[in-house]
Amino acid sequence: MILVSPKKHLNHPSLPSSVDLNGSSIALSPAVRNLGVTLDQSLSFHQHVANVCRTCFFEIRRISSIRHLLTEDATKTLLCAFVLSRLDYCNSILSGSPNYIIEKLQRVQNHAARLIFRSSKHDHITPLLQTLHWLPVQQRIQFKISTLCFRNFDLSSPSYLSDLLDVYSPSRSLRSSADTRLFRIPSARTKTYGQRTFSYQAPSIWNQLPHSLRHSTSMQSFKTSLKTHLFPH
């Protein structure tokens, strides 16, 4: 069991070391793993990102050892299966994280891209990612959250997500009220526990998208236009 609390309270002497539940004493842990995600007491996800990076670099080294036997396409397929899939798994929980957290994952993606083309670490990474049609890590997170928001309007979003989103409806008729595809951004007092929640991050990311993009007619056209919009220029 894990007790989530602001970091300044975690070392408080009154903090219990265990919790009694139905007569059983359950020790508190500094971190727990649930559905492949490591949760720590301050929800910093430092350990989770460290675990992802360690596993990804292990897979990159394994693929690197046989790179001379592989074509570029085969190498890309392996890296998508064993590395990018791990970078994308539950990546929406990292929205709003400090840049240094995202940069750790970006280094993993950069290594993977350079392995495909056998390029030097000094080569600029953006052209390689564009050739591969790989969005950078930060943009991949935004892509994931934006598609989840779009599903709210085509009624394919699960209720446990749609319940977290409040469609904006102005109290009086305004010129902007014709845009019915906006979400209300809830107030948040803290950056860690408030501004990093899905209910805050999703509306913030979605509302910044261009009007034409938010009003795409299908999921496929939305994804295509969104990817073009998010690619660094």
CA gyration radius, whole angstroms? 21 Å
Strand percentage: 5-15%
Q: How many angstroms separate the termini?
A: 45 Å
* Biggest sheet character: 2 strands, antiparallel
- Spans of at least 5 consecutive residues with low confidence: none
Instruction: Provide the spatial order of strands within the biggest beta sheet.
Output: 1-2
Count of alpha/pi helices: 10
Helix/strand structural class: mainly alpha
* Number of DSSP-assigned strands: 4
Helix content: 40-55%
- Molecular shape: flat
Order of helices and strands: HEEEEHHHHHHHHH
Chain-averaged pLDDT: 88
- What is the count of structural domains? 3
Characterization of the model:
By secondary structure, the chain is mainly α. It folds into 3 domains: 42 residues, no CATH class; 89 residues; 91 residues, no CATH class. The strands form 2 sheets. Strands 1-2 form a two-stranded antiparallel sheet. A two-stranded antiparallel sheet has the order 3-4. α6 packs antiparallel against α10. The radius of gyration is 21 Å and the shape is flat. The termini are far apart. The mean pLDDT is 88.
